[in-house]
Amino acid sequence: NNTFSGESRRQNLIVLDELGSTNDYLKSELANFKPLPEWSAIMARHQTAGRGQRDSTWTVEPNSNLTFSFVLYPDYLNLQDHFTLNMLISLGIHDWLISKGITPEIKWPNDILINQKKVCGILIENKSAGMKIKQSVVGIGVNVNQKQFFDGLENTASSLFKETGITTENLEEECLNLLAFLQNRIENFKNKKLTTNDLLKTYNNFLFLRDKPARYASSDITFQAILRKVDANGQLYLEQSDGIKTYFFKEVRFL
Ligand code: BTN
C-alpha cells in the first residue's frame, strides 16, 4: 500500500527530555497496572540507558535522534506468529523511509540499513498469556541527525542525515509521522488487507545480503553461506556447500 501519506490519527505521545530506557519505562508502567491504551508512546530526547538486542546497549548522541517505544496488545497474533509483528514493524519503518525517497534494506531480523549501514534498530519485548501475545513493548531507535559515529561504529552505523543530507528539525513530529506509518501497516494487517504471506514477500524483497555470499557465526563456528530467504517463523535459510540449513535468531549471527 504505497498510497498512504502518513497523516496521524490522534496519538498519545509523551516526550521527555531524559530517560533511562523508553522500553523499560513502558514495561514498568504496565507492570504497575497503568491502563495504557494501545499505541501509548513515549519518546526520550536523551536516552541514558538504551537497550538493544542480544543484551547489547543502544547509545546515541542526545537530542539528535529518535528513541521511542509504544504499547501494543496484539491478541490477533498467536505466540508462534511473533515474527509477523517483527515484519509489521520493520516494514512500517521501511514505508516511512520510502516516503522520504530513501530505499532502505532490512537486515534480518529487524535492523534497517541505508547504503549498507545501520540507521535503525528495533527491540520488541513480548509478554504472552497462553498461546497469545498479550502485550508488546516496541522500542525503536532511529539515527536521524547524528553527524559522527565513533569507536569503529562509523563503518557499520549511520544516520538519515549522513546518508541523505536531510536535517530533521522537529523530532517529535517525525516520531508521530513514523508512528502513523506503523499504524497503517498494522491496521491493514488486522483488517486483512495484508496477509502474513504479503508481508513475507515484501520483507524478503528488501532483505539485506539476499542471494549474496557472506560470513556467519553459529555456536563457535564461522562459515560462508548464501542467504536465500526468511520464512514466516523468522528462520534464516542459509545455503552452504552441503545444502540449505535453517536458523532461528538465537542460533546465528552475521559476522
Ligand atoms: C538493536 O538494534 O539492538 C535494537 C535497538 C533498540 C533501541 C531502542 S531506542 C528506544 C527503545 N528503548 C530502548 O532501551 N531500546 C529501544
UniProtKB/TrEMBL annotation:
Leader sequence segment: none
CDD domains in the cross-refs: BPL
A GO MF label: biotin--[biotin carboxyl-carrier protein] ligase activity
InterPro entries in the cross-refs: aa-tRNA-synth_II/BPL/LPL (IPR045864), Biotin_CoA_COase_ligase (IPR004408), BPL_LPL_catalytic (IPR004143)
Keyword Hydrolase: no
Keyword Methyltransferase: no
Record-level GO cellular component terms: cytoplasm
Keywords in alphabetical order: Ligase
One Pfam match: BPL_LplA_LipB
Domain BPL/LPL catalytic positions: 8-190
Cited PANTHER family: BIOTIN PROTEIN LIGASE (PTHR12835), BIOTIN--PROTEIN LIGASE (PTHR12835:SF5)
Protein's recorded name: BirA family transcriptional regulator, biotin operon repressor / biotin-[acetyl-CoA-carboxylase] ligase
Organism in which the protein naturally occurs: Sphingobacterium lactis
